[in-house]
Design brief:
Helix content: 40-55%
Structural class: alpha/beta
Distance between the termini: 24 Å
Shape: globular
């Protein structure tokens, strides 16, 4: 039995993750599990890089990402379903933040998309491959 499903999406993909969200919601609904949706913003890392941006750039980016994440969930699943979703916006390396979020949320399943992988990636995109390789819980990959 699954208690929590974590769905990882990239809000910069536009509608590409709608099918990933719908699949995650269906899997969560099968077990009456909590659905959490995470998106990850890149981290600037070095302090000299952040000097090229306004002081409040990161806070504004987080706010905008939260709005876009909610809009994506609403467009894919509707207002009623969106109200029951925990929305998470993390900052850092995508696969690491997805795994951290899954651990802190107590997720039993991670749902992630594999979008148009390059030939070098063979079957999965690089973030999906890393999540699959390093996850301690099951990972459902949506093509």
């Amino acid at each position: 039995m699954t208690n929590s499903v974590l769905c990882a999406v990239d809000i910069s993909n536009g509608d590409l993750d709608v099918n990933v969200l719908k699949t995650a919601a269906a899997l969560a609904d099968q077990d009456n599990a909590q659905l959490d949706v995470v998106t990850v913003l890149p981290d600037f890392g070095e302090s000299w890089v952040s000097g090229f941006f306004q002081a409040d750039f990161h806070e504004k980016a987080l706010e905008e990402a939260q709005v876009k994440l909610s809009e994506l969930c609403i467009s894919a699943l509707g207002d009623e379903r969106n109200a029951k979703i925990r929305h998470v916006v993390a900052t850092g390396t995508a696969y690491q933040e997805i795994l951290k979020t899954a651990e802190s949320a107590g997720s039993d399943l991670i749902v992630i998309g594999a979008h148009k992988p390059d030939l070098k990636d063979y079957l999965l995109g690089p973030n999906a491959a890393r999540v699959v390789r390093h996850s301690t819980v099951s990972v459902y990959v949506v093509r």
